[in-house]
């Protein structure tokens, strides 16, 4: 493994650990859950690409499963645990699909395109994560729906609301970082992994 690849994977591990630490901040707003860990993973994915982003998200998901999921009642069975932890958290790394376009826009100083690529890619990654939570909500958490409400509607409302809240938060922070510290998204002399 080259030094470049080692640096990318070490950086990804640090990002996964940071994302996990951020999960310990109070993150419930009524029935909605804010996932602060999406923010560093979004920056990392936009910096290093989707492969590195998915890998880091997978590590974050496994950490969350072992450190919080088993102890908080969030783990019902192995399939639900797989869907809502490793798969859902890894899906956030899909934000990295916008890496090469974003970095080209950064080099050309095309601010509108920078924001468009970053926001669009963040939409993909956040909604991919919450799609997995939606599926698990329908099949595994649907019994918690209020009487007379379908599990599909229950999961859509619960997970959709959290997805929108997290999407807004992640995009606001990513855009602010693009304005104030664009170098975070473009490592010197390195292409995305």
Q: What's the arrangement of secondary structure elements?
A:
Blueprint lengths: L2 H20 L5 E2 L2 E2 L4 H11 L1 H23 L5 H14 L7 H9 L3 H29 L11 H30 L13
Antiparallel strand pairs: 1-2
Secondary structural class: mainly alpha
How are helices and strands ordered from N to C?
A: HEEHHHHHH
Per CATH, which architecture?
A: Orthogonal Bundle
Low-confidence stretches: none
How many H/I helical runs?
Answer: 7
Transmembrane segments: 5-22, 82-102, 114-143, 163-185
Pfam families: Thia_YuaJ
Keywords: Membrane, Transmembrane, Transmembrane helix
Protein name: Energy-coupled thiamine transporter ThiT
Task: Please explain how this structure is put together.
This protein is mainly α and 193 residues long. Helices cover 70% and strands 2% of the residues. It is built from 7 helices and 2 strands. Strands 1-2 form a two-stranded antiparallel ribbon. The longest helix is centred in the C-terminal third of the chain and has 30 residues, at 151-180. The mean pLDDT is 92.
Briefly characterize the structure:
The protein has 193 residues and is an all-alpha fold. Helix content is 70%, strand content 2%.
